[in-house]
Amino acid sequence: MINRIHIGNLAYAVTDDTLKNTFEQFGTVQSAVVVKDKVSGRSKGFGFVEMASEEEAAAAIEKLNKTPIEGRTVFVSEAKSTGPFPSEGSSSPRHSFGGGKRRFGGNKGRRFEKKEANGEE
Q: Would you list the DSSP string of 41-98?
């Protein structure tokens, strides 16, 4: 099912209503959202539209991909679903930071521990 559509390269002036009005020519728009930065409230340059049916979504993708909206060429495609994050102990590259007990700042702490073990200060 491709009812959910991703729209990239949006102009910062594009609003939720602009997206909704643009996609309504292809069918019923269930939701239209421009993703905004939480702190500044400024558009991040992409958004999502959810259409009522697969046929409407497919038609919108075909007709609007690589066309201008508010003066910028947008890229329209099926939205990829993001599943849950892998569990903490998984071998996913997302959670792999490269290594064991290595700490930031080099080996400063190890030298100190070595001196302390030898009875030095």
A: --EEEEEEEEESSHHHHHHHHHHHTTEEETTEEEEEEEPPP--PPPPTT---GGG--S
